[in-house]
Every structure is written in C-alpha cells, then in structure tokens.
Amino acid sequence: MYHAGVLSAALLLGALLTGPPAVGWHRCELEAHRLFLKATASITVERCPLGAVAADLRTPPLGEGVLPTGRMVDVIRVEASLPFGRRERITVWIDPATGAVLQNEKRRFGKGAYWKVRRATDDGYYEWRTEPDLPGDHILPPPQWSDRAEHQVVFDPPPPPGTVVTDPYALLAALPALERSDRPVAVVSGRLAVPVRIHRAEPETARADVLLRWPGGARTARRLPVRPVQIRVAPPPGVERGKVRTGVFGMRGDLEILVAEGTGLPVAIRGRAPGVGRVTVRLRRAELDGPPPEGSP
C-alpha cells in the first residue's frame, strides 16, 4: 500500500508528464457551402512526447524559440480543399497546457504555390518561405524550391505580458486549453498578435448530421447538446476587425463555435470568409477516442 503523500506526488508527476486531458476527438471533417462554392477540411490532433517532435521544431537564428510548459506537444494537421481547385496543407505544433503556438508549417498547392514555416519566438516569430521559380522546382521538396526568403517578425504592438499567442488553424483544438486559462489570448494574423476574447453562452441543442466513429462503434448524431463559444476580436488601433484571420478556410473577424458537450467537437463554426461573406462551417464526420459520454454526441 502506498503512502498518501507518495500517491499524491505520483499523480502530480503524471500530470506534469502527460499534460492536461486531450480533446475527446482525434479527427474531424468539416464542410462549408456558399452558393455554388464548396470547401472541405480534415483536422487531426495527435499528442506526442516533446522528444518525438523536437527535431521538427526549427531553431530560429534570431529570438528564442517558444517551448511547451510540459513534456507533451499537440500536433494539429489540416488538409483543406478550397474553391477553384486550391489546396492547402497545414501543420501546427501547440502547447497542450496553454494552447500557445510553437510552430506553423503551411504549403499551398496549385496556382500561387508556396511553402513556409513560422517558428514562434519570445517576441514574435521567424519565417522561412520558398516558392517554385525554376522549371525543375516541381520535382523538388518545397524547402528546396529556388525562390527563398526568410525574416524575423517582432509583434508591434507587443501583446500584454502573459498573453497566450495561438494560431488560427489550431484554434479548434486549442480551445479547451484557452478556455481553462485565465490568461489573455491573441491570434497570429500576419505580422500582428491580435487580442481576442472568449465568451461562453448558455448551452443549447443544435441540429446536426454527423457520423461519429470510435473503436468498436459508430452512429449518426442528429441533435447535439452544445455550448456556443464566442470569439471576439479586439484589434489595436488602425487594424480592421474583419481582416484579422481567426479560422479555417481563411475565416476572419469574430466567430461563433458550437462546441459539443462531452467531446469538444466543433459542430459548427459561424463567421465571415473573404470574397464570400457570412458562412457556416459544419461538422460532417468525426473519429472519437472512445464512446461518447451518455447524453452527448
């Protein structure tokens, strides 16, 4: 039998090693329609030991690279198909304890192709970017494309001390950590870290058409208990609220996210997309880590 003090220490150590609870899903598929336009995205979340992904986190030549507060890292991967044949692939590394972004890697395919990595630093980020410029570039890995540039970005104005700076592509997976924290939050938008405020509204029931799968089971959910979460942008003077990037599909400005009780699934995201206007992104399929709790999706 273990002494109570030893058991408490062991539990504390376990929490430090594993970090906060992971989101209850590891993959979701989203879809948005506007007139004849359609966009889809799949988002996966994987919690990894820091040692397993340390080599992926680049060392910036300027500034200190941000590190997680614990020994785990959440890796979010986004595959997006956009109107007019555009495709994007994004990977974001975040601190699961706070939701802070560590690094963002993005590749755009087709017309206007590029590849870039932004490594978060103590005062902004350092960016590496390449574009195909020579005929032989299409057979090379993107980091070897011929048109190359890199630069340091220092947030100006700087976010208030203690601010958690997160990434818009990781917002859906980072939201539980951001809600748990009492620290101010900002999203990276261009060369700025723009403050946002997170508000929870009263729970409600939302209509849905979501195929849920988990080990050993599956079902289609038609009505889901959700908690609306409002993301309100608070830009600095001279910055337009509607131009601040806040979500998948290039969504900008304020958002409303309907978060499923029990699993944390993003059932719907309401906001504005450039050139399209107001749009609702809906959850179509999701893979859970286990059976949903009783009374939830």
Described by strand count, sense and barrel closure, the largest sheet is: 5 strands, mixed, barrel
Average predicted local confidence, pLDDT: 89
Based on helices, strands and strand pairing, what is the structural class?
Answer: mainly beta
What's the gyration radius in Å?
A: 20 Å
E-strand count: 16
Number of helices: 3
Helix content: under 10%
Beta-strand residue percentage: over 45%
Q: Name the helix and strand elements from N-terminus to C-terminus, one letter apiece.
A: HEEHEEEEEEEHEEEEEEE
Shape: globular
Q: What would you say this structure looks like, in words?
A:
With 297 residues, the protein is mainly beta. Helix content is 10%, strand content 50%. It has three helices and 16 strands. The protein has helices spanning 4-18, 50-53, 171-180; strands at 25-34, 37-49, 72-82, 86-94, 101-109, 114-120, 124-131, 147-154, 164-166, 185-189, 192-200, 204-214, 217-233, 252-260, 266-273, 277-288. The chain has a five-stranded mixed barrel. Strand 5 (101-109) and strand 6 (114-120) form a beta hairpin. The radius of gyration is 20 Å and the shape is globular.
